[in-house]
């Protein structure tokens, strides 16, 4: 009997020791890490100084354990990485069992970031149990930001019109975007033959210049390109290119000069004599020359004569249908 009692107590004790093994254990989903990070892209091309936003999804694959997850970021020096969740900046996320949350990641590239491939790495780890996630590495192919044009040229009114006798004034501004003083040369290209182009500091100065000095990061306004057409310029539109250049940098723009026709004519005789002698009752034939001294054709030119009282005079032709610029008719 004594042997049986000892045997019974031993069995009870063994049963009590085995009870903890019946407590539920948390398991991850098959073939998945307990804590998983994922991103919609793993590589992006971006310019210096640009900002890009993406999402990082955190998934707790454990079926019975909550996780208090701290997010860790490795980034190049000078880069800015901001994590937000529902509008708040965060560095930890709480995940219920078999739950997932998405955070927004905003990454700002420095203006002076070196062109090439850079990597930003994300990891997460539960601060209580040490459960660690996989690693998400996003590659950033940084390309050089397009350079701001060191010299900018802007014409207020690039299209002007006038007759061949007029002087056209194109007002323009120059901007120096460099961090140093520069001397900018001015010139005109494609100027029609015989035309004269001059540059002045302003419309109120007679001084003619061929260059101008600009302070760092400054703007010079009210400069003038003065265009004088040749007197025989025919009506039409003419293109002239205004050029500003310094230290190998060039800015240019095209202006248009529209020459309108100029009406001008004169009357004379073949020998330029406008007086003569004749006797009473005598009849004399005089040749009159009509010259088109303008720059546009004349049409429907009417001629008339007004003799002294008692005299009589008549014209062989009282109208010239067409008299082209520079031509004469008699």
Automatic annotation (TrEMBL):
Family matches, as Gene3D superfamilies: Immunoglobulins
Domain Alpha-galactosidase NEW3: 46-125, 280-328
Record-given protein name: Alpha-galactosidase NEW3 domain-containing protein
Species for this entry: Caldiarchaeum subterraneum
Short name of one Pfam family: NPCBM_assoc
